Amino acid sequence: MARPVRSLTALAGSVGLAALGVVLPGSADAADAATAVIIDSVTSDYDASGAENPDRTVTGTADVTFTVHAADTGAEPYAAVVSISGHGAGTGEVSRRIDLAPGDCLPSCTLHAALDTAATKSFPGAETIAAPLVEDGANDIRVEVLTARPSTTAATADVTVDNDRPTVMLPDLPGDDAWTDHKPVGLTADRELKLRAVAEDTGGGVSRVEFFSDHPAWPAPSELAEGGDGTWTGTVDTSKIYSTLWTSQYVVAFDEEGRAGVPVRADVLVDHGFTVTPVIDTVTRDLPSVVTLNYKYPGSLAQAFPRNLNYAYPVSTRVLLDDKVLATSPVTDFTYEGYPDRLYASLGDNLLPYGKHTLTFDVTDNRGAHGTAQTSVNIVSGVDPSWSAGFSEFPVAGKTWTAEATTTAADGVSRAQTWTMTVDGKTISTGTYPTRPSGTWKADTPGIHEFTLTTVSQFGDTSVTTQPLRVLAATTTKLSGPALTTYGAKQALTATVTQTGAKPAAGATVSLQFRPQGSTAWSTVAKAATDSTGTARFTTTAKRNGTWRAVTAAKNLTWTASTSATLTGKVKATLTVKSPTTRVHHGKSVTYHATSTPYVAGTKIHFQVRKSDGTWTTVTAAKLNSDGTAAGNLMFSRAGTYTVRAYRPAGTTLTASYSTTWTVHVS
Question: Residue 412, class by beta-carbon neighbours within 10 Å (0-12 exposed, 13-18 middle, 19+ buried)?
Fold first, then answer.
């Protein structure tokens, strides 16, 4: 196969050309040892006759002709791999390997490989569907030449694959931006899934369109009905499919010869509803205006923090009294999406009639599924206090606090026949009608105390009113945490809150706030309650440089608010060089690949060598590619042992970052 080396200039009109072997400036003779590969032509059924093929269209078998150049035995190839890859669902790769014997490509050789672009394979989980390994459309034919050197020489040729495979699209699927906040819009199902697909005839016709799943829980593949203008529709029974977000459903079109195109993924949300449990007992007085409803989805639809996969959640509640609508209200901000737990149903603003009644709670979620519950209630008149003293002022430790109230009843008849006042379970006063409830209490310690007024009417109906007593105390907040964290790593910050008398402020609400470097605005990252030691712990993911602070909120005037001193946190990128070459010859180029997380294409990565005085000097710099990697080419002019590292300079977002060093022995 050996033949004279062809001129690179003469090959400038080839389909594709690549010659790898980049060296540092000052090493002109190093390029002579490089291996080059040139794709001379790509022909197929469309251009096998030699006709012009300006758009490089291939159908069926693609015949690839390429030339390999090897300047010396050190760059001699031992194999060549020709491939074309698909990128859609169920696709794969078609490749051919050509093994070469010593001397076959010295100084050059011309090789051929045939790639069947119409090859198929059984779709995983749906073996009856032969999906094409390569989809129609723009693609690349890649030639890789393998040599004893650690690098791979490659060339690519842009081609258009056209095997007349039909295509299909689902116009009701959500766009990529619709999936933010985990709220998909598109294919949803409860008892049934309705599908609408648009199939395009690319030359081979469209005989049918089929829906299938690679999961055994779904029904067997089913055909959609043709509706004209390329539109196909169908219905799939999902009544026995358990609730979750399904990501393994597909729609595929077949041509007149029964050949399948590339399947299109159809993510489907199945929601069969949820359970609702009212938190309410039979009462002896007017019902409150809001009732707590605990709700629960199947675990697959309600993923708790930190996953927050709440694709389904309640959006409105309807309350009926004896089958008549009492109130309809949306789910309020009390329901925190991402923590499926409870919601609050309004009973309206009107007083409820006394007597025995049935309350029905009908909750609807964002997918139209329902959760319902009924409960019986007995509504009687209660006796309620109106405070004339005590709750317009706040107790202070060591002072005497006085509470006084008058009582009224909604029915105008009930009265407080007897009454008892307690603080923290200890009685401070009692009385009987017509004496009005009153009592005094000496506040001895800061904190929350519980005040209770219990009244019993002449009808034996008991009403209990509980009020929190909050004795004021000041707070001090201190924040500690790491000064330097790696990007993407978890960093722990601790806030310690004390109140008057150096007592831990247990149960304080602490907000962890962050201000990015270069900004003046603070944002709340997380909230937490302190434990019994007055400590609140936070775990965050390091993203960028900035300043932290902790803010303790006033707890209904139990204690005052306070803000910690600021804490500066630096974040460094993860910079790695995988399996770097450690033994090279002087005067020869060696390439190191650095990977940065995070990355922005175009960011410079410096490859540095440590000098004898311990300082570092940059040998070369390379920009990060779109995949987050940068390739630096180094050449050591003299033999010796060198310590090398990759370095990413500091910026506003991240501080200076370094890779692990490696040692290079240069002979």
Answer: exposed
Instruction: Tell me if the pTM is above 0.90.
Output: no
Give the separation between CA 115 and CA 48, rounded to whole angstroms: 14
What mean pLDDT value characterizes the chain? 84
d(CA 189, CA 388): 57
How high is the pLDDT of residue 654?
92
Closest C-alpha to 252, from 393, 120, 435, 139? 120
Tens of pLDDT along 614-653? 999 999 999 999 999 999 999 999 999 999 999 999 988 9
Check if the beta carbon of residue 369 is closer than 8 Å to that of residue 312: yes
Q: How far apart are CA 142 and CA 163, in angstroms?
A: 19
Beta 188-189 vs 268-270: how paired, if at all? parallel
Q: DSSP letters of 366-393?
A: TTS-EEEEEEEEEE---EEEEEEESSSS
| Chain segment 333-391, per-residue pLDDT in tens | 545 454 567 888 888 888 788 778 899 999 988 778 888 999 988 777 778 888 888 88
Tell me the two tokens of residue 267: 């993510």
Separation of alpha carbons 665 and 667, rounded Å: 6
CA distance linking residue 92 with residue 556, whole number of Å: 63
SS3 track for 253-314: EECCCCCECCCEECCEEECCCCEEEEECCCCCCCCCCEEEEEEECCHHHCCCCCCCCCCCCE
Q: Could you count the other beta carbons within 10 Å of the beta carbon of residue 281?
A: 9
| Residue with the two structure tokens 């009005």 | 436
- Give the tens place of pLDDT for each residue, 4-55: 332 222 222 233 333 322 222 222 233 334 688 998 888 887 655 445 555 6
Cα–Cα distance measured from residue 161 to residue 666, given in angstroms and rounded to the nearest whole number: 47
Q: Which one-letter DSSP state was computed for residue 330?
A: E
Distance CA 377, CA 358 (A): 6
